[in-house]
Design goal:
By secondary structure, this protein is mainly α. It folds into 2 domains: 63 residues, Arc Repressor Mutant, subunit A; 137 residues, GntR ligand-binding domain-like (Four Helix Bundle (Hemerythrin (Met), subunit A), Up-down Bundle). It contains 11 helices and 3 strands. A 3-stranded antiparallel beta sheet has the order 1-3-2. Strand 2 and strand 3 form a beta hairpin. Helix 7 runs antiparallel to helix 8 and helix 10 runs antiparallel to helix 11. It starts with a helix and ends in a 13-residue tail after the last helix. The C terminus is likely disordered.
Length: 250
């Protein structure tokens, strides 16, 4: 094409070829690992009471039923041991964690003090959005209690407390409470056989109210009263002597 023809084409409105669009960037989808699937299946068995405290977990049997390799099951059990749900005895086997009366009493005394500390620190940092999320979790606990869904009750109840711990802003405190309390939450419910009711769930609204409205000694008093109430109930239903209430104004 001659130069004047090229100029004429441009003048007549010829459009330059559009540049091809860049490919859309999608996130990489990572399938859940076999180990994670086994961990979740074993946790479900614990929450549903199909695995009882002190019961042996035989790696070979689990592997055969789940149609996975024994090393995968072993890896899952090591992870669950790290979370406190099972204990592994060298040259003997793996067992669902169980606690005696003294263990339960000591753990609940510790839980009250550590969670009260977490809530005191959370009080300084909590936002309206956090309070809405906590309220929604309590709503779900109450609904689970009304429907008799024990697994959902435990999951939402623990999610509520875990969020309280995380709101403290101290990951070491949150991780300590998580590690100590996750297996105990499951154990006391399964070992006692006690029902989980909507009223149990509603008691958690007091913690939300304290975080939203209260300060100073009034905040501390309500927090300790509520936490000691939680502890006393489970100490009674598991046949453990209730500890003395922690000092509310400490």
């Amino acid at each position: 094409m001659k130069e004047d023809d090229q100029s004429r084409g441009i003048a007549q409105g010829s459009k330059p070829r559009e540049r091809a669009k860049a490919a859309v960037a999608y996130p990489k989808i990572t399938p859940r690992s076999l180990t994670d699937s086994v961990i979740n299946a074993l946790k479900d068995a614990l929450l549903e009471g199909r695995l009882r405290p002190g019961e042996a977990i035989v790696e070979r049997d689990v592997a055969m039923q789940m149609k996975v390799g024994t090393p995968v099951v072993r890896e899952a059990l090591i992870a669950l041991q790290g979370q406190g749900f099972v204990r592994r005895v060298p040259n003997t086997g793996t067992y669902v964690t169980e606690f005696d009366a003294d263990d339960i009493s000591q753990l609940y005394r510790l839980r009250v003090e550590l969670e009260a500390l977490a809530l005191r620190w959370a009080r300084e940092r909590v936002t309206a959005s956090d309070l809405d999320e906590l309220t929604e979790l309590v709503d779900q606990v109450v609904k689970a209690g009304e429907s008799g869904d024990k697994k959902l009750f435990l999951e939402r109840d623990f999610a509520f407390h875990r969020l309280c711990w995380e709101l403290s802003g101290n990951r070491f405190l949150a991780e300590t409470l998580d590690r100590l309390m996750a297996p105990l939450f499951v154990f006391v419910v399964i070992a006692s056989g006690a029902p989980l009711t909507a009223n149990m769930g509603r008691e958690h609204y007091e913690i939300v109210r304290a975080l939203r409205e209260l300060k100073g000694k009034e905040f501390t008093s309500v927090v300790y009263k509520t936490l000691n109430g939680f502890a006393s109930r489970w100490l009674v239903v598991t046949g453990t002597a209730a500890p003395g209430d922690s000092h509310p104004n400490r």
